[in-house]
Design goal:
By secondary structure, the protein is α/β, with parallel strands linked by helices. It contains eleven helices and four strands; from the N terminus they run H-H-H-H-H-E-E-H-H-H-H-E-E-H-H. 44% of the residues lie in helices and 11% in strands.
């Protein structure tokens, strides 16, 4: 039996989601305000948090040592912790080592300090290729590293969430923490980019 497809009405995804939410709340499965609570959390999970951490580490050697020894505590010291904020490990880049983060199973990151993962990070192509051909993947993402730089890829798990501590660029001597934080992007914190000094900071 054929059916005229033009007569089929589709329920918008937002309407379906609203109905599901109301059903779960009415059944007592999901407490009221649960969605709003997570929306507020997501609003505070931004890469600017990680940028602040990096800037502090660049200007405060004591904090840098804490970050590399116990990143979870170092992040909490600046107010970044809570859900998904445990078991954070900081990976320090050097002139001969570039650390890169991936989650081969899904898309986990240290969300409180990196923010939600970008679309390319969640893609199967990135998750499968960066482990096998990391130098080529970084090149495609805009980071062309010399052969003298070793690349180490770290696989995030539910028990260990990584963030990259990039090298401080030359020419940033005397900059404030706010100025330094402004050049640290989410890609830098994942390890697929390096902080760039494109203009003088006044």
């Amino acid at each position: 039996m054929s059916q005229d497809s033009s007569a089929i009405s589709f329920v918008p995804a937002q309407t379906q989601a609203r109905a599901l939410r109301e059903a779960l709340e009415n059944a007592g499965v999901m407490p009221k305000g649960y969605v709003e609570q997570w929306e507020e959390t997501f609003d505070h999970w931004v890469p600017e948090n990680g940028a602040r951490i990096v800037a502090r580490a660049w200007t405060d050697s004591t904090y840098r040592d804490l970050l590399l020894r116990d990143a979870t505590s170092a992040c909490r010291e600046l107010g970044f912790g809570g859900p998904e904020g445990g078991f954070i490990v900081a990976l320090e880049n050097t002139g001969t080592l570039q650390n890169v983060i991936v989650c081969t199973l899904c898309s986990c990151t240290a969300w409180p300090v990196l923010g939600l993962p970008p679309e390319w990070y969640k893609s199967f192509e990135y998750r499968s290729r960066v482990v096998r051909e990391s130098r080529q993947v970084l090149r495609e993402l805009g980071l062309d590293l010399p052969e003298s730089v070793n690349i180490r890829v770290w696989d995030t798990t539910a028990e260990t969430r990584y963030m990259v501590l990039p090298m401080r660029p030359k020419g940033t001597e005397g900059w404030s923490e706010a100025q330094l934080a402004s050049i640290v992007t989410k890609d830098c914190l994942i390890g697929v980019a390096r902080p760039q000094v494109t203009h003088a900071k006044g």
